[in-house]
Each structure stands twice: as C-alpha cells, then as structure tokens.
Write a structure and sequence with these properties.
alpha+beta, OB fold (Dihydrolipoamide Acetyltransferase, E2P), DNA polymerase, domain 1, globular, DNA recombination, nucleotide-binding, Holliday junction branch migration complex subunit RuvA, DNA damage, RuvA_C_sf
C-alpha cells in the first residue's frame, strides 16, 4: 500500500494526473485533477490509496491527508464506491462533508452527484460521530448559501488554472471571468463555458 508519492506532475487529464517518480509515470485518479496544473513540471506530494478488485487495480490520489481519510471512510458506506467517493470530494471539502454528516444535513448531502436520500441517510447512519479525526473545523453549516458559494468559487479557481494550462493569457481569462462568476457550476462546466465564450 502506498501512503503517498512524491514526484513531478507530468500531465493533467480530466479524470487523473500523471506523476513522474524516478522515470515511472503513475496514473492517479483524483477528485479535481485541474488543481495540479499549477504543479506541472514541478515536484509535489500526493496522498494515495490503492484500490484492488477482481477486474482492476487503481491508484487514487489526494492533495491532503484529510481528503484521503474521508475517501476511505466513504468507501465503507453501502452504495458508495470509489467513483462516488471521488465525486463527493470533488464538490465538497472534507470539513463540509463531515459537518453535514454530523448535523444530519441530508439536503446538503443529496446535492452531491449520485447521492440520493437513501445514500445520504446511509452516510449519516454509518459515519456520524466517526469522523472527528478528519477535521476539527466546527460550525461550517451555519450559512449554507455561503458554503455553496465557496464551493462554486473553488470550482471557478480550478477552471481558471486549467485555462492557463491550456495556454490562454491572463488578459483573455480576465475578460470572461465576470461572466463566469455569474454562474454556479462545476469545474468542468466552467471550463466548457469559458471555452465557448473564448472562441466567439
């Protein structure tokens, strides 16, 4: 089992990043690959989890140890596999997810892709009170609208990093940023909208 990998970010794809470690390229599935565009050709540390099943072996990676720990906890919930756990981490910070579970905030949990009421309830039943070691940031759900805005802003920032990696100048990006800020989208949706706007 790999605890983490230190290496150079070789390339970034929509679903994974490639980390070069001593000439070996590790394909690592990660919640938000675009956050690693700022590390292209630079060394970084990525926390990893190796998932093995009969038909595949996959390596998952995370920016922080907290993300990795929450990912592992989510895998213990009936109805959530690696793909579902990645989607939850792509749209929410560990502290936000922990607080939602501990406060039985099903409304917030069902906003994650693939999480319905049944799965949200199962997350609460299986994990409530068992996630204290992941984060100690309290009271994150006092203002849910603010939280949603924070998640959206993070997605926008990641989209901007991706546009820079694609070769667009800061001037071009600044020109369309006000229009992007009017939307509440995922990282991929921001990128698609930005590309459509830039080619007009």
């Amino acid at each position: 089992m790999y605890e983490y990998i230190k290496g150079t970010v070789d390339s970034v794809y929509p679903d994974y990043v490639v980390i070069d470690n001593n000439g070996v390229g590790f394909q690592i599935l990660t919640p938000n690959p675009y956050v690693f565009t700022k590390h292209i050709n630079k060394q970084c540390k990525i926390y990893t989890y190796q998932h093995v099943r009969e038909d595949m072996i996959a390596l998952y990676g995370f920016e922080t140890a907290e993300q990795k720990q929450l990912f592992k906890k989510l895998l213990n919930v009936s109805g959530i596999g690696p793909k579902g756990a990645l989607a939850i981490l792509a749209y929410g910070q560990p502290a936000q997810v922990v607080e939602a579970i501990d406060h039985e905030n099903e409304t917030f949990l069902t906003k994650f892709p693939g999480v319905g009421k049944k799965t949200a309830r199962q997350m609460i039943l299986d994990l409530k009170g068992k996630l204290d070691v992941i984060t100690d940031q309290p009271n994150l759900f006092n203002h849910e609208e603010v939280l949603q805005k924070e998640v959206s802003n993070q997605s926008l920032e990641e989209a901007i990093l991706a546009l820079q990696a694609l070769g667009y100048s800061q001037k071009e990006i600044n020109k369309i940023t006000p229009q992007l800020k009017q939307q509440d989208l995922t990282t991929d949706e921001y990128i698609k909208l930005a590309l459509r706007t830039l080619v007009k």
